[in-house]
Amino acid sequence: MVRKIPTQQHLSQHQVIEFTEVINNFGNVYDTNFHFFNAPKPGLYYFTCTLTSYQSERLNFELAKNGALVVKGYAADEKQSVCATVSAYLHLEKNDKVWIRNGDNSINSDSMVYGNYYSSFLGFKIQ
Q: Mind naming one GO cellular-component term on file for this protein (predicted)?
């Protein structure tokens, strides 16, 4: 599990969301330099990510596998921060990569993520 992202403003399209604190990294599967999960062996994996929008800003984000979109998340409220969660079961081959990135800027050009332990990313092998 990784968490604690700094508040990031003005994320560019498909910019990787950088989780800077690793809570558990069994097998060193989360790359802390490039901020992706790297599958150590083939199998079925589960991923979930909760991101919190910064104050009243919109947040559009995606879970990606090897650069391809898997699922989108969106959080927005005119008055306060809100959370959105995405989850996916994925069959991965060895060295497949999964990460969280900013979404399509045509939907929202100014995504802002609220860090300070309000956002997290988790992935693990099921079988």
A: collagen trimer
Number of domains in the chain: 1
Contact at 8 Å (CB) between 53 and 112?
yes
**What is the per-residue pLDDT across 21-39, written as a single tens digit (0 to 9) for each?**
888 888 889 998 999 999 9
- Transcribe 32-72 into DSSP letters: TTTTEEE-SSSEEEEEEEEEEE-TT--EEEEEEETTEEEEE
Query: The domain spanning residue 99 has which CATH number?
Result: 2.60.120.40
What is the b/e burial string over 68-80, where b = at least 16 CB atoms within 10 angstroms of the residue's CB?
eeeeebbbeeeee
Task: Determine whether 85 is exposed, middle or buried from the number of CB atoms within 10 Å of its CB (0-12, 13-18, 19+).
Answer: exposed
Q: Which residues of the chain have pLDDT under 70?
A: 1-10, 105-110
Q: What is the pTM of this model?
A: 0.89
> Which of 1, 116, 121 has the alpha carbon at shortest distance from 55?
116
